């Protein structure tokens, strides 16, 4: 078909010329309708007509180009059209009609396809030589045809992605409101919902897609022949169009970027788009540098997975598989361009990398993908260019924005996975220092451990642990050097002999680059550095932020696993302690870390012990998920590895570990027995102990590790119905006849015997009872075995008949009591009994007597009690009573020292206490004696046991012992730390179970324990109060707060407070009166206030006004020496920052940057609610202050002035602190006392000036050498980065600093503020780290004098963040202020200070 026939369907001859002229006059910006008849006929045009015309034009264009190349004569398209009377102007106008119709949102499939086909035809015409001469080219129409794809392709897929958002990392509304406003996708979605939705079938979409392919092919043909050198805007538009098409459809297989001759061989639209971008980088379309800048700028947002329009901020895309695939293709294309264009593209690769870093967001998945992109792109760099980027990254890692510092750590981790570059490849020796992995670890990664942001700290520590898992030898060596100074020599020697030639080469490279941030010249300094680093890591494990603690745990476990630091108990106990962390996530992390360490070091006994100390107590954790995790760990390590034992069978490492852990539980870790029992209680409910497990367990009772087997058997025997009793009885017989059975094993066997007693026949029981009695009567057993044996005896005699059981106990336990009584009588009543005293035997008889007496109270007679009593007092006092028949006429008043050893007397107290538990009359008799012993006793063990006995008696005889609680609590100030700790624990248990109430002075004695001189006791008291007692009584602190003021100052003149009775001795012991104890008192006040709720703080202020200040204002309390101290302390308490309401004092959005963005976004609604709450609470607080406090303050001030009291200073200080938030409303608050208002205003202004002067002094002080390497990089000193222009792709520039000179502190600040308001900008510019020529002060920043103009520019392609004129990697900056000769130093300002009272008087005279 010839060209003219193909054009017939457009009916160009029938188109009115006036319509054509009007379309051209409108410059194709509006759609002008044709007559109804012609318009309707054009609407029904099919795709075949457009295709025929396209093929004809394509053939003519090919013939014309071929003939032009061979200098042959071929009639051009334009000549053919002119000869046949076809108007090119009309043709273009009609094609624009289809294009404009296809762009409408409501366009149907046919209109969209026709619009795309017409646009393809126009672009094809434009690419034929002579198009400009024939006036085919129009810039608006060209841009519209090129970009019609974005309007014709259905956009409803964006809505589906929007609905899927909650399933991604942006779940649960974590995108902030400001982002939502600026997100173009969301704006498009909202508009789309207003219009009528159009639904397209798969066949319709394929038609549109084919038309898009024709259009893109036409655009590529146009770029092959039509130069855009003089049309930069069109080139920019084409770049934007192709970048949009990169995600048009998925690419099957790998995308190819090689230059192609035949466009039709390109398989997908994205491949065509990449080819188009490559064409735009050719010289015919303008300066290649500008073209590369445009292309890289557009690819930047593809790599960042962002959607960037012409205006507004870029919006994040959901990192789906298609988005990630497009990103990977874009990175590969950049690498292809760099490889092809080499030196021409390298500067823009540097800029691209800098922008990837600079525009990175905080979301973890985006950071991860961004860091991978940086790693892939840097692999295309030569070593010298790579070193320049690392130098830039070094400065970038200290940027003021937290997300930049965070991302620099991610980039470092990716770069560490790449092969290390050799310094020989870098010609510049200074840049060569940036190549080793050691520099990345020590100068970029490890320095972030001291970052201001906990998020960055935690991430850096977490990555540090990952470094040890990398295969690079130099990476692990660098980490070793940080924490273990002796590791370098040892590893080198071993590796030289064992590693291959390549490894030796790596070691050589490492030795030749000994680069560190701080040069160390001696091994002692290196050792000190390593110790400091380990100490810092251990402190980070106890950081206040949970994410820092978790990351520090991961770093610590990595160092321990790889033997970087020794597995000492100090390091391991830190891990165990974190299993009891307040944060649930940290507890789980600690459990996981301990499990990893145990798997890595199963033979280390210290690691085994640490694992037990951490995991076993976690089974009783308050959080159920932690319990489950601990139980899973115990099950996996202990229970699941129990296999049948055979002497011929070899036990693998896992089984050996199991039995080693069980042996530790039997020996060093016996204190974990209760937690371990709790685990078996839970497991028994889950029916975890099968007969096979029991059989396997019993098979180990004859092995060397039998102790562990009996431990497990004692825990599981009660949960099993069928047991091999024969083997258990054989073990019992062996234990009775053998003397080498360990104590713990004996106890466990006795426990098993007691548990199976119900399943034994009577003959067997009688035989066991007989053996037990014989065994006990030898008194050769340890105290633990005696207790277990008596308990087993009780279980053997247990039956359903209570009387029968008691008769059994009276018989056998009574026999033991008689034997012990006879022994004691022989010792005590004999004149020479003490001479032949066997201390151990005496203790065992006393212990047996106490344990047995609990089961047969009727067999305990007066003689037995007196014999035990004689152990504690002078024997001559009781001999007559013991030998006579009359009862004692004189009761015992106190214990008296005798010739018996202290250990015997201590056990005698315990035995006497057990006797009292069964006889109330003995309690009445001996409680005063116990109380007296607490006061006057000198033996620590005796007094400690008395505390235990009295607290145990309180459980059974609460009403009787309640009177003696003050005597017990007085031990909280005992001279011996062990007694103070024991008393604290016992009283806490009684308070928890409500056997004791918060009455009298008990609360205040607990408060004194808070400031105990031994930190461990103070910490224990804090734990007891906060985690055990406060939860039970949340109002406990606020109820006693005001009374604390009076009690600790020993002031009893108030009608209500401090009226409970206590002895003078106790009053003196617990008094914190006086200036020497002020610090302790305020530590208590702060502790209480820190754990108040806002409601309690608000109420306590009102109560202080009513109960304290009002009493002084009304002169109910005299202003004597003691009361003045009370009033002064009250004002100081009211001035404490802990007294401020948290809802008012916490700044809105204050900690936002400290937390990860995910948490930040989740808390946005909470932050808004807090802001509203802050406003309401502030108003309520203000009203209460005006109505309740101000009148009292005015009255008190007047009274204090009359008395000339020094407390007036404290009152003014309190007002100054309180009125900081209301400094502009002083006159309103104190309208009743104008003089007070004036004085207060003057004080506030004076304090504000002093603060400003101090701040300026701090700013101007030379702190260069003292700064820690945090994020305060001088080249990035601004808190907010300068926003990039929409189409400016250059190196990111920081905001230029505008720092006030130090001298402004001594000038009028109001004048400075007025100049700023008028828009007058200071010409004083601080240049930090500017390189100066030789002879000038090096490494200084100059604040230029006033009146000097400086214009600074950066070379193209160089960064303000990184440049050779930037800061060097080591050292810090200092500031030098230079003044011109003409500028005189201003003198000190003369203060014009007048008393407010004098001002008032002068105004009254006038």
TrEMBL record:
Keyword Electron transport: no
Annotated spans, Disordered: 154-196, 1380-1406
GO cellular component: condensed chromosome, centromeric region; condensin complex; nucleus
Subcellular location(s) of the protein: Nucleus
Major place of residence: nucleus
Keyword Hydrolase included in the entry's annotation: no
UniProt xrefs under Gene3D superfamilies: Leucine-rich Repeat Variant (1.25.10.10)
GO BP terms in the entry: cell division; meiotic chromosome condensation; mitotic chromosome condensation
Domain of life: Eukaryota
Domain Condensin complex subunit 1 C-terminal, first and last residues per copy: 942-1109
InterPro entries referenced in this protein's UniProt entry, alphabetically: ARM-like, ARM-type_fold, CND1/NCAPD3, Cnd1_C, NCAPD3
Ranges annotated as biased composition (Basic and acidic residues): 172-184
Keywords: Cell cycle, Cell division, DNA condensation, Mitosis, Nucleus
Listed GO MF terms: histone binding
PANTHER family named among the record's database cross-references: CONDENSIN, CONDENSIN-2 COMPLEX SUBUNIT D3
Subunit structure, interactors included: Component of the condensin-2 complex.
Function: Regulatory subunit of the condensin-2 complex, a complex which establishes mitotic chromosome architecture and is involved in physical rigidity of the chromatid axis.
Protein name: Condensin-2 complex subunit D3
